[in-house]
Design a protein that fits this description.
alpha/beta; Zinc Finger, Delta Prime, domain 3; two-stranded parallel sheet; 15 helices; 7 strands
């Protein structure tokens, strides 16, 4: 009887991707796992939800009929230090039966001297791949081509100037601009000024996005930037963000009346509201319960008074209020 040849070990496959915005990763993880789709299911996990023991168990667990474990680790930068250490330990002696795709939102390049010591070790074990676009312009052109939209050269220059080195702000900014241009199929310099709605202040725009998406860590980082932005007004910020939350409150009210979420039109929310504005609100709607929304409106009224009369540094007051709201 012919002896069976011993099964060849499965090669160790680990990829580490980093970018300043998770939108830049695109569908790379799905492409990575595609070649093994018949060998099992992909387990998607998020760094913020992981305990050290969870990660260890995942690496050692396979389904009954699975020959490999396919793990898609998102937001790895949000893992606690002990969990990150467990990842480093695994990468020193990885199992050949684990296929791992890691996404890290941040900078893992050699130029970044502030990388955490554990992540430095991880980077020494797995070469990180940079998924940031080559430039703001290349990303802008990619987005408008996808939507078959024209954009003026002056609008591109203004966007590049507006974002500066903060490429991570380009996805939400282009979302807004492309939504607004669905009918006209054209983006102008005036659109960039009007639609970003921040008086040209990239730091205020970032702070709005972080709050609406309930990103605590991002809020604190954005506050540090906005404090150094002479053009940023805390009173204007509170007014703008309160308006956004008012729209979310109205959508809650409309939904309770029996209108389906998809059937809600701009006119139902407010006369003169644009489609792109409603879409932006809807994108964040699910992150805010009705109670949280109403609490935020009460808090913003108090914050407005505090900024105008409290001796506390205005942006410090803003940070305290925003973080308190997210923890309710």
């Amino acid at each position: 009887m012919k002896k069976k040849e011993p099964q060849k070990p499965v090669p160790v496959v680990v990829r580490l991707a980093y970018a300043s915005n998770d939108r830049f990763f695109g569908s790379e993880a799905e492409k990575f796992f595609e070649k093994w789709k018949n060998e099992g299911e992909v387990t998607k996990i998020f760094g913020s939800e992981l305990l050290p023991s969870d990660l260890q168990n995942l690496f050692r667990t396979q389904g009954i009929f699975e020959s490999v474990s396919m793990i898609y680790l998102k937001n790895a930068e949000k893992m606690g230090k002990e969990t990150t250490k467990k990842l480093a330990e695994f990468l020193k002696k990885p199992f050949s039966s684990v296929y791992l795709f890691i996404e890290y939102v941040g900078d893992l390049s050699e130029k970044n001297k502030k990388i955490d010591s554990v992540w430095k070790e991880i980077v020494s074990l797995v070469k990180p791949e940079n998924f940031n676009p080559h430039s703001a312009k290349s990303y802008i052109l990619k987005r408008v081509r996808e939507k078959n939209i024209d954009i003026s050269e002056s609008a591109i220059l203004m966007l590049e100037s507006w974002a500066g080195r903060d490429l991570h702000l380009m996805p939400p900014a282009m979302d807004i601009l492309c939504l607004a241009a669905e009918e006209t199929k054209n983006i102008t310099e005036e659109d960039v000024l009007d639609l970003l709605g921040t008086g040209g202040s990239v730091s205020i725009f970032e702070l709005q996005e972080k709050f609406l998406s309930r990103d605590e860590r991002g809020i604190s980082e954005a506050i540090r930037k906005v404090e150094n932005d002479a053009s940023a007004s805390p009173i204007a910020f509170v007014s703008t963000i309160a308006k956004q939350m008012t729209y979310i409150a109205k959508i809650h009210s409309i939904s309770k009346s029996g209108v389906s979420f998809g059937a809600i039109t701009p006119e139902m929310v407010e006369k003169g509201l644009q489609y792109w504005q409603l879409q932006r609100i809807k994108d964040n709607f699910s992150k805010w319960s009705e109670k949280q929304t109403l609490n935020s409106l009460e808090s913003f009224a108090l914050l407005d008074k505090a900024i105008k009369g409290d001796p506390v540094e205005p942006w410090t007051a803003v940070e305290i209020h925003l973080l308190k709201l997210l923890r309710v």
